[in-house]
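Each letter names a residue; structure tokens follow underneath. Both lines appear below:
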Amino acid sequence: MALIGVFDSGVGGLSILDEALRQLPQHDYIYLADSANAPYGEKSSNWIAARSLALCKHLTTQGCDAIVIACNTATAEAIAQIRAELSIPIIGVEPGIKPAAMQSQNGIVGVLATEATLKSDKFNALLATLPDQCRFIKQAGAGLVPLIEAGKADSEETLDLLSKHLEPILDAGSDTLVLGCTHYPFLRKSIRKLLGDTITLIDTSDAVVRQLKRQLEALDHRFDSGERGSVLLISSKDEASLLAMAKDLLSIDLNLHSIDCAFLGEVS
């Protein structure tokens, strides 16, 4: 049984934790939400890199065997440095533009992500590897993360803002939409309310967890007792709120796990 750290700027990475608990329920998890500093997508590259490294180092002091950076912005800005400094497996996330390009019927793909992700060298290097005949409509989802963090993913306010962000993507004729931030899968209901089933939605939670599983197997963490591991939720803002959000947003029944929450103090 392994101890797995899952780190995000806020509650977005719960979409990754949800999939991990579905595929790998026997392991123990620490979910670290840096909600006091969310959203990361509007901060400088240097700040994101330094903060992400510090939080991942903190997770290693808690005994984590592997860490999932469940934040597209942190992955884009910091994963190379984190992997260079830490000796445990580090799994990142990135917008699913490659599977989107393969699934699109008309070759027009919308990408909804944070400004920092869209401007990052890592994202643009990935974009450069894809066929020229596929056109990507990039749109920064400014303001969406704070609304999701506030528990308003399905509110009229979110619906109005989301509609404005989706407009250029729809106007371009996109038939596929990449959810390029781990917060955005929690907008599926709102997106469907606006668009119905007219667009294919792409997120990479399943692929990320399958990669985590491969890394754990390489470390010989394949033990499956049939039991469910524990979940510790840590927040830099409000641990009780994080627990409430987890119970609301996760499709997995947390009551099947030993669950606890804690406040994150100063991290150097």
Notes: DSSP finds eleven helices and ten strands in the chain.
